[in-house]
């Protein structure tokens, strides 16, 4: 099976070359899809130099958000399996084999990489972020009747045929609760796999903030109770 790796990119000039090198080093048949969401720090000008037969690059003509970049990337994916990869260095591409294994084994249609159910390393960072994440995951679980431990994780893996059944509506970080609500309504098998996590602080370029938490709360209610 071929793996499509979708990487939304926004102002990642300091990490994009490194993460792309890490992704390319994974020994799996793959295509890499980079979607620049109108970066203003020089990333946009650098990306064309990375293009090759296995790396596709697309550009938004204005800043729309992570969800919009993912929607673009998903529409361009040709692999049998699609995984989301952030352009920073928080998530390690060497985790791909264990993330896709439940799908290869025929056990799963979707796999979430959990930062909280893991025997692997995890950087210690913000308590209130962790608490907010657990609250949003709990509320999402209550309405989807899933028992996920990390709804907000970047590492989400899908059979392409599952993604083809879903229309992404959220432009920003509301994508996470939206996609979780929508897959919960399908007759599919969902697994979790523990992953390592090297989180970054705000001085290192972390972008998500409290407003995104409020938006996630709105999306949990919208896509579970109002649809």
UniProtKB/TrEMBL annotation:
<dbReference type="InterPro" id="IPR001173">
    <property type="entry name" value="Glyco_trans_2-like"/>
</dbReference>
<protein>
    <submittedName>
        <fullName>Glycosyl transferase</fullName>
    </submittedName>
</protein>
<feature type="domain" description="Glycosyltransferase 2-like">
    <location>
        <begin position="4"/>
        <end position="166"/>
    </location>
</feature>
<keyword id="KW-0808">Transferase</keyword>
<dbReference type="Pfam" id="PF00535">
    <property type="entry name" value="Glycos_transf_2"/>
</dbReference>
<dbReference type="InterPro" id="IPR050256">
    <property type="entry name" value="Glycosyltransferase_2"/>
</dbReference>
<dbReference type="InterPro" id="IPR029044">
    <property type="entry name" value="Nucleotide-diphossugar_trans"/>
</dbReference>
<dbReference type="GO" id="GO:0016740">
    <property type="term" value="F:transferase activity"/>
</dbReference>
């Amino acid at each position: 099976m071929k793996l499509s790796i979708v990487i939304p990119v926004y102002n990642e000039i300091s990490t994009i070359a490194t993460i792309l090198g890490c992704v390319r080093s994974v020994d799996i048949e793959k295509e890499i899809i980079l979607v620049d969401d109108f970066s203003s720090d020089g990333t946009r000008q650098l990306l064309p130099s990375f293009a090759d037969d296995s790396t596709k690059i697309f550009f938004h003509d204005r800043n729309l958000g992570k969800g919009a970049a993912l929607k673009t990337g998903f529409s361009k994916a040709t692999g049998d399996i699609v995984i989301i990869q952030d352009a920073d260095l928080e998530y390690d591409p060497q985790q791909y084999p264990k993330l896709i294994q439940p799908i290869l084994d025929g056990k799963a249609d979707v796999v979430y990489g959990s930062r909280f159910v893991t025997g692997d390393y995890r950087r210690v960072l913000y308590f209130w972020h962790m608490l907010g994440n657990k609250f949003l995951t709990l509320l999402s679980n209550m309405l989807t009747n899933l028992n996920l431990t990390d709804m907000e994780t970047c590492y989400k893996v899908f059979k392409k045929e599952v993604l083809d059944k879903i229309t992404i509506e959220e432009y920003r970080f509301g994508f996470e609760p939206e996609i979780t609500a929508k897959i919960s309504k399908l007759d599919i098998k969902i697994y979790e796999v523990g992953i390592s996590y090297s989180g970054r602080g705000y001085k290192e370029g972390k972008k998500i903030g409290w407003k995104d938490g409020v938006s996630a709360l709105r999306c949990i209610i919208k896509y579970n109770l109002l649809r």
